[in-house]
């Protein structure tokens, strides 16, 4: 246990690995099930980011990174967007890492007013990274042409914003539902 009384995830334990696999699968399913096609780029709008934010908020930056990268890249591969999978792995992995790092840095309880504000700020910054990352990736994928990433930009902004809002609402609910002594909790039972 750390000096703050929180326990860190042990990435060698079966429980932690099972939770990583489960959350990655949930991100994959959320990405594939809620999928609205974007005609201009043949991409799609989804809510997988909300689960990435929730995982990062409750279990920390490494969880967010692994769940975001693996779950989202798997969705791209299964959904027929294999050319995006390496980009998605990197972009969504960093998105989860950023969200978890920022939340861990501020050390707040997610159900407090301060926690909700910090969550919204952290998720918005991580979503902004996702938007910028996909803009750059699409610029490269589509032959150094600005038209496709510009066409998808409003959809990515909406995806990030809606996912952040969903996560801001769900994180406190899920955090309070977790057992008080969860050996994998990073942020959910944090400081003031």
TrEMBL record:
Domain of life according to the entry:
Bacteria
Per the UniProt record, the source organism is: Candidatus Zymogenus saltonus
Keyword annotations of the record: Membrane, Transmembrane, Transmembrane helix
PANTHER family cross-referenced by the UniProt entry: UPF0397 PROTEIN BC_2624-RELATED, UPF0397 PROTEIN SPR0429
Q: Which protein, by its recorded name, is this?
A: ECF transporter S component
Mind telling me which Pfam families this protein's record contains? Answer: ECF-ribofla_trS
Q: Does the keyword Membrane apply?
A: yes
| Transmembrane regions | 51-75, 116-137, 157-178
Q: Name one GO cellular component term.
A: membrane
List, alphabetically, the InterPro entries matched.
Answer: ECF_substrate-spec-like
């Amino acid at each position: 246990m750390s000096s703050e009384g929180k326990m860190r995830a042990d990435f060698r334990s079966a429980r932690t690995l099972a939770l990583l696999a489960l959350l990655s699968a949930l991100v994959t399913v959320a990405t594939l099930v809620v999928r609205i096609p974007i005609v201009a780029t043949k991409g799609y709008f989804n809510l997988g980011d909300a689960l990435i934010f929730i995982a990062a908020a409750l279990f920390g930056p490494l969880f967010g990174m692994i769940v975001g990268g693996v779950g989202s890249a798997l969705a791209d591969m299964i959904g027929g967007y294999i050319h995006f999978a390496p980009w998605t792995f990197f972009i969504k992995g960093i998105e989860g890492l950023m969200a978890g790092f920022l939340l861990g840095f501020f050390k707040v309880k997610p159900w407090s007013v301060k926690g909700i504000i910090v969550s919204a700020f952290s998720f918005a910054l991580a979503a902004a990274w996702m938007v910028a990352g996909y803009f750059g990736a699409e610029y490269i994928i589509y032959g150094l042409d600005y038209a496709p990433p510009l066409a998808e930009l409003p959809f990515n902004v909406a995806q990030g914003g809606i996912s952040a809002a969903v996560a801001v609402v769900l994180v406190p609910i899920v955090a309070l539902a977790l057992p008080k002594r969860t050996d994998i909790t990073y942020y959910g039972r944090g400081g003031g």
